[in-house]
Amino acid sequence: MPVVIMTSAVFFNLVNGPVNGYFLGNFAVYDLSWLLSPWFLCGIVVFLTGMYINISSDYKLINLRKPGETGYKIPYGGFFKWVSSPNIMGELIEWTGWGIMTLSLPTLSFTIWSWANLLPRTLDHHKWYKEKFGEEYPKERKAVIPRIL
Questions:
Q1: pTM for the whole structure
Q2: Inter-residue contact 71 to 132 (CB < 8 Å)
Q3: 97: CB partners within 8 A, 6+ apart
Q4: Alpha-carbon torsion 75, 111, 95, 1, what sign?
Q5: In this structure, are residues 10 and 84 in contact, taking their beta carbons and an 8 Å threshold?
Q6: In sequence order, what are the beta bridge partners of 93?
Q7: What is the pLDDT of residues 9-50, one digit of tens each?
Q8: Where would a tag sit more exposed on the chain, N or C end, judged by fewer CB atoms within 10 A?
């Protein structure tokens, strides 16, 4: 993993976690009716969809090799049919849902920063897969957004 990506991830978490926590703990005012608002309901569906994609894709990656096997393999199945990094795609969908659920400047910045932090990582990961596996790697797979990027 490139140092710049690791450094940006650390910086991202050191800034965004406290900013969002401080805002939600000290300034946010959501009454119970917010839980039934279209924004919250849409956001929770988006968040849970992303969570499912993230967890199911991580599960596939964790179980890619049998016990005792070494080396790299091309993941297949699930959302790997469309993208090289569906776990990260799921995370981006999650944080987009979080931004929709809460509709605030800190969570909007969290969402934007998530994309700015994770998108270069997925592009680098996709490039690595293509270089590592060459012609074996599925040509129709995109990096993180099916059929687009």
A1: 0.83
A2: no
A3: 43, 44, 45, 46, 47, 48, 49, 50
A4: positive
A5: no
A6: none
A7: 788 788 878 888 888 888 888 888 989 999 999 999 999 999
A8: N
